[in-house]
Specification:
Strand content: 15-25%
Structural class: alpha/beta
Number of helices: 4
Radius of gyration: 19 Å
Helix content: 25-40%
Shape: globular
Number of domains: 2
Largest sheet: 4 strands, mixed
Number of strands: 6
Order of helices and strands: HEHHEEEEEH
Length: 177
């Protein structure tokens, strides 16, 4: 994949991730965005080339670093090869920008046919959104995208979810028995 196409796909995927999240979260999400890049694993693996393993170690070291789009492209695109998949999601709402998380595969491929998510318009990107652990998968209730930065709120919401699930189980047992 050439560099310009990869950059364009990253831009489009970032915009799609923000738009998708706007329908799910209570936070104001700005159109200005930056990225954090994380590998899908935390150690060197068999099946990866020497270059891929070196890049994996670099990604691990840079896990919490915030990048502009150009810096992200420089780190992800290598000699017309890109990660096999990149899950892209809004990670945080900040005062000046929206922080987008890129979860990347360690394997690099040149041809579109070797990438995941080729059905969509932006290979190798897949737009998703990380739900808080207290959020029901099928819930239509909006949530705070910065939930992972608020440990007290997280504990409270987890406790509420636990109580809600206990009541559900109790009702189910009552209906079965």
């Amino acid at each position: 994949m050439d560099r310009d196409r990869f950059r364009t796909n990253l831009e489009e995927a970032a915009k799609a991730a923000i738009e998708f999240a706007r329908n799910q979260v209570t936070n104001k999400l700005l159109a200005q965005y930056k990225f954090v890049i994380a590998p899908d694993g935390d150690d060197a693996r068999e099946g990866l080339s020497e270059e891929e393993n070196k890049r994996l170690v670099t990604r691990i070291k840079e896990k919490d670093t915030v990048f502009t789009i150009e810096e992200a492209v420089n780190r992800l695109w290598s000699r017309e090869r890109v990660p096999v998949f990149i899950d892209i999601s809004v990670h945080e709402s900040r005062k000046d920008f929206t922080l987008i998380h890129l979860l990347t595969d360690g394997r690099l491929r040149k041809e579109d046919k070797d990438l995941y998510y080729t059905q969509g318009p932006m290979p190798p990107f897949h737009v998703c959104l990380r739900l808080p652990p207290y959020q029901d998968f099928d819930s239509i209730e909006k949530f705070d995208v910065n939930w992972h930065k608020k440990p007290l709120l997280l504990k409270w919401k987890l406790w509420l979810a636990k109580m809600r699930n206990k009541r559900r189980i109790k009702r189910m047992k009552k209906n079965v028995g």
